[in-house]
Write a structure and sequence with these properties.
The chain is an all-alpha fold. The protein has 15 helices and no strands.
Length: 298
């Protein structure tokens, strides 16, 4: 893929500094990756025997790998980032980082993260991390995002891997327990991003991104949002029935997931965009609160 295929508003470098390269890593997304990855480690059997240095190395590898995938995403999406209001201030469209520098930086970081995870932690965790990076950087960013309204549904798998990676960092394997953690985030992703697209639809339309509400219509999208929250409810309490967590967690998950379903019902029932905004805000709180409860109620 040559760089001329994705025009940038300003391809000059204007006082590039370390902060600009750090911003390429999508630090807000990285913080969620670190948090959910840590929860996966925390509730995995054997975590208490894990050496603190190995734990920190695993989290560092996970965060760097996720950031590198975000950097590749920014490199490839620099044309649409320049068009969309919420992304137009990113380093590449603003001309603070050259596309070639961003790509090289991100590829090197991705390789470093996977190798560090494999050499210092274990190769199962490294393999999942490498696959997640490849899935997000290539399959989602370069193929799905611009070609199908199912982009978020399929591509959402990339963001669901962190707790599975955290689990594997401790146990060295993949199990039904870690797959359940994966499924929680996987099912959460569509209603989360579709709620955003309902009130940021103009941005996506201008950029030519085929979000579900633009292709299938708003009513259909809202029905699917409700469908995914209903699927998420039983999956969110599954850790209790698998023996991972106690009944205190199950009650908490039931309440949080029930409120998520309620927000989807409101969004479906009312045309006012404030309900979509409210659902998007709650979805962020929901995932944080649910995974936090896994720590405190384990």
């Amino acid at each position: 893929m040559d760089e001329t295929s994705h025009p940038v508003i300003d391809d000059t470098i204007a006082d590039t500094n370390a902060r600009d390269f750090f911003d390429l890593l999508k630090p807000r997304v990285m913080s969620l990756v670190i948090f959910t990855g840590f929860v996966g480690m925390w509730i995995a059997p054997g975590f208490s025997e894990m050496h603190p240095l190995i734990m920190l190395t695993a989290l560092l590898s996970l965060s760097v790998g996720a950031g590198a995938a975000g950097g590749i995403n920014m490199w490839f999406d620099r044309d649409i980032d320049a068009i969309m209001t919420r992304t137009s201030k990113r380093p590449i469209p603003m001309g603070r980082v050259q596309p070639s520098d961003a790509l090289g930086f991100s590829i090197i970081l991705s390789i470093f993260a996977v190798m560090m995870m494999g050499l210092a932690v274990n190769w199962m965790a490294a393999a999942i991390l490498g696959f997640a990076n490849l899935f997000y950087s290539v399959f989602y960013t370069m193929i799905l995002k611009r070609t199908t309204p199912q982009n978020i549904v399929i591509g959402g798998a990339a963001g669901a891997f962190p707790p599975m990676i955290g689990w594997a960092a401790v146990t060295g394997d993949i199990s039904i327990e870690s797959i359940t953690l994966f499924m929680i985030i996987f099912l959460w992703t569509p209603p989360h991003f579709w709620a955003l697209s309902l009130f940021a639809g103009k941005d996506y339309k201008n950029a030519g991104i085929p979000m579900m509400n633009l292709i299938r219509g708003v009513p259909s999208t809202k029905r699917q949002m409700l469908f995914y929250t209903l699927l998420l409810l039983p999956v969110s309490i599954a850790p209790t029935f698998l023996g991972m967590l106690g009944w205190g967690y199950a009650v908490t998950a039931l309440i949080l997931s029930g409120l998520f379903v309620f927000s989807a019902v409101q969004t479906l029932w009312y045309d006012d965009i404030k309900y979509a905004k409210r659902m998007f805000g709650y979805s962020v709180f929901y995932l944080f609160a649910l995974f936090l409860s896994m720590i405190f109620l384990s």
